[in-house]
Structures are given as structure tokens and as C-alpha cells.
Amino acid sequence: MKLNWETAAGKNYKIQVSTDNSNWTDAYTKVNGSGGVEEISLSPVTGRYVRLYGTERTTVWGYSLWEFEVYGTSDQQPPVQSGNLALNKTVEVSSTQSGLPAVNATDGDSGTDEIVFSSTNARYVRMYGIERGTGYGYSLWEFEVYGQQ
Predict the structure, then answer these.
(1) In whole angstroms, what is the distance from residue 114 CA to residue 52 CA?
(2) Dihedral angle over CA of 134, 137, 140, 146, nearest 10
(3) Quick one: CA dihedral 10, 126, 114, 103, positive or negative?
(4) Which pTM was predicted?
(5) What is the pLDDT along the chain (149 residues), one digit of tens a residue?
(6) Which one, of 92, 121, 123, lies nearest residue 106 by Cα?
(7) Would you give the DSSP letter of residue 25?
(8) Are the beta carbons of 149 and 84 closer than 8 angstroms?
(9) Other residues' Cβ atoms within 10 Å of the Cβ of residue 96
């Protein structure tokens, strides 16, 4: 797994996984983070959903990621595809900033922040923001998922 933080990073946060999008299990806990690019290796976990659960920010501006990347494998059978599984996929958002369409999050053109999951089984991946520091929302330039499909 790889996280590429903008200036507004998570000081303390958890990476959580879920099989049903209701019951969440902590897969990783970060304490006293300072942002930048974080490459995270997790113990083997199984889940359909992945989220970042922020508990403390490094700034007053909220949590802002350039990229949130999840790597792993799937138990599903062919077709086998490797590389960025999120590349050019449909994106759903609650709002956008003028001139920055949501499709930019999966267009393959951005900075890098990796989080690596070992043997993770997930069908869907999302960045689940819990609390914003301002009215500006979350900034996510790229959202990539790597593995085999």
C-alpha cells in the first residue's frame, strides 16, 4: 500500500478493511506521521473494502492525499490483469473543484504514494474521509489499485 500525502497529512490514522462495508478491522495503525510518501506493508488481510480512518491531522486543513494506492491479489479467476486496476475506471464523488473533474483521480497522471497489502482480497476500494479540517473537503489527485484481477 502506498500513500502520497499533500501538505495536509494524517499524523495518526488507521488503514481498515471490511468484507461488508459495515464491520471494519484495523489492518495498520500510524502514530506520529509527518506526511510525504509512505510505503506500508501489511500482514495478510481479507476484505472487500479498504479505508483510511484519520484520527489526527498534521495541519488544520484536513486530510489531503495525492494518491492512495492499494496492491494485492484477488481470488477471482481470469481474466488476469496486472498493473493499475483502477486506471480509467468510473469515479463517484460528492463534489468537485472547478476545472478538476473526478475522472482525474484514475487517469494515471499524478504523484505517487504507495501502501502495499500482502494477500488482500478486496473487490472495491475507497478512501473514506471521516472528518474534514475545513469546508474545502478532501483533495485526491490520483487513486490507483494494483494487483491481479
Answers:
(1) 13
(2) 110
(3) negative
(4) 0.53
(5) 899 998 889 999 999 999 888 899 999 999 999 999 999 888 888 888 888 899 999 998 888 888 888 877 665 554 555 667 777 777 666 666 666 676 766 776 654 445 555 666 776 777 777 776 667 777 666 666 766 65
(6) 92
(7) E
(8) no
(9) 14
Q: What SS3 class is residue 115?
A: strand
Q: Quick one: cell of 129?
A: 474521509
Amino acid letter, residue 36? G
Q: Which residues contact 137 (CB under 8 A, 6 or more apart)?
A: 62, 94, 95, 129
What does the alpha-carbon distance between residue 113 and residue 118 come to, in Å, rounded to a whole number? 17
Indicate the domain borders of the chain. 2-147
